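Lab notebook, design round three. We kept the backbone fixed and only want residue identities now. Task for the bench partner: fill in a sequence for the structure below.
Input structure tokens:
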């Protein structure tokens, strides 16, 4: 996909990190953030993230896709909007 040597990428990463004066950052952190943010902030499903990340198994993707409580609220609200919480009747059908 990209025509870049691994050593060139490592050099660019290290140089950028040093210039930004960031000590505790690893290239793999970018991969983790990419995957986690797709799920948490954009609601992208795990199978799409798996494909984008090139993972062989969904289990690998699950390691990166950590949910924070605020990312779960829209799903709960969707159920709340669908059901009348006092009568458990379906609404908005």
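Proposed sequence:
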């Amino acid at each position: 996909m990209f025509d870049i040597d691994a050593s060139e990428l490592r050099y660019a990463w290290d140089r950028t990190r040093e210039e930004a004066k960031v000590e505790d950052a690893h290239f793999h952190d970018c991969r983790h953030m990419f995957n986690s943010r797709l799920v948490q902030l954009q609601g992208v499903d795990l199978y799409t993230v798996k494909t984008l990340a090139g993972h062989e198994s969904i289990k690998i993707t699950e390691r990166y896709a950590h949910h924070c409580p605020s990312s779960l609220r829209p799903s709960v609200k969707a159920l709340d909007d669908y059901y009348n919480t006092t009568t458990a009747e379906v609404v908005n059908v």
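Keep this in mind before ordering anything: The two ends are 46 Å apart (CA to CA).
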